[in-house]
Amino acid sequence: MIKEFFRIKNYVKVRWHLLVAGIFFTILSVFANGVSLSAIVPLMDKVLVKKEKIILPENLPQIIKIKIEPLIFKINQLPSLLLLKYLLIFLITILFLKGLFFYLQNYFYRCFSTRLLTDVRELLYTKIMSLSDDFFAKKQTGELTTRIIYDVNLLNVVFESFFPKFVFPILLTFSYFVIIFTIDWKMSLLSIFMFPVILYPVFRMGNKLRKLGKKIQIAYGEIGNVINESVYGQQIIKVYNREEYMKEKFKKENENIFKNIISMVKRLLIISPFTEFAGAVASSGLIYYGAVKIINGGMSTGFLFLFFVALLSMISPLKGIGETYGLIKQASSALPRVFSVLDTESSVVEEGQDVFMGLKRNIEFRDVFFSFEGKQVLKGISFIVEKSEKIGIVGPTGVGKTTLVGLLLRFYNPEKGEILIDGKNIKEYKINSLRQHIGFVSQQPVLFHSTVKENITLGFENEERFKEVIKMDGIAQLINSLPEGENTIVGERGITLSGGQKQLISIARAIYKDPDILIFDEATSSLDTESEKMIQKAIDQTLENRTSFIIAHRLSTLKKVNKIIVLKDGTIVEEGTHQQLLDKQGVYYTLWQLQFA
User: Among 11, 68, 233, 544, which is least packed by CB within 10 angstroms?
Assistant: First the structure.
């Protein structure tokens, strides 16, 4: 499990100096804690019980006896009141240092874990943003959101807990072991037998907690999807009276989370009382053994008291170790989910080194094939679009029109064939430089919860260019009609705007880039007649002097294009101008008759 956690260093930079600093102050804190307990012996024997001298345990190792006998001799010579003053000064000093070291260890551990998880969260988001469209086709929004937020937060629990709540208690327990073995190794061996009884059930429970943790993460991903669908599709849900259905769907996933959490909580909560009870039972026999030692003069009261303070002090860190182990096992189930995203290879990778400076001659699709999940979508597609030409792409739903332009945008890679711009394969260009010269308007406008201006500029501020773009027909009227003009918040997914208004902003966004190549993917298919005319007018303005790909369902919008290609069953079955295709009376003619007969 530890190896799995430290695999994270393969993905992000680990600030080892913060971890080393935390471990250093942990060692000092543990040492200060052990030293502070040593004051119990003189306090009990010389101050409280008022014995004449401190008696060293008979089983104390000889080398330690030789080292501490001079100190014990000096302590035995001091008057009780003076010794008490010295002990109080010593305790105040050592407890201050102990508190300081404890603060510093936790500060450095928290800096270490928070920095690490911040970097992981950013890396995960960056990775998701870099993946190709085929990845998103297989994943749901709620699931990906859960990976970035919930799963990373679970890892945060692990990295924040591991060192201060797992490693520190282990070292603390070890220091207590050193103390009790130093005092009486025989009595210490007897005490050891209680620890397997305490720890075995805890570690057995850890595997179950890991499985439950994985179930909870999956359940959170499912409920995230339900919430996302409910918000996005709330109008459809209401119109079709599916509120109760969605409520039941949500309730089912919510109850699933509840059951798994309660199942996990039952196991986590039993760890603490079990370890405490088992420790108390095992300690009772040791108390009897130690009392006999004092009666027979084999040990002073102070050393026996120190033994039991050290022994019973183990119970708290052992409980902490058990509880933290349970949490770590539960949270460790997030690691495979996080690593599965980080290890995902994008089907589209940066291969080229050339910077695309703009279209000079033409774009050529040469014998392009593409399949998705075993289904052949495009088969041997070949055509050429000259600079400034407008090409229309038509065909039945699902024939591969959007996929075709997606290949040009490098959302996917052809499995065979190539796409050339000015005679050079587009893979030889840097992806960002290629996309910088392409404007894209999708069928479903994508707007962000921000202002109109920010939705057009997307953070690339150029005030002069922005003012020029919003003078276009339709866009100027739209901005003037909004309460706060260009600074009006459009709401999530542009919910405050009509379909035509959303599409106008999408067109303005595409034009703001001032691209050489424009792609319109059925930009008017879902609009009413009036909105369609407004959008078509805006499109006609934007097409001037630009190479354009226009996917259209409404064939009337393609009358003015230079060439139309007709797709059927993944191949180009017809090619020509609007009139030429009508004269052929083929597939295009049939589609035209269906729309306008």
Answer: 544
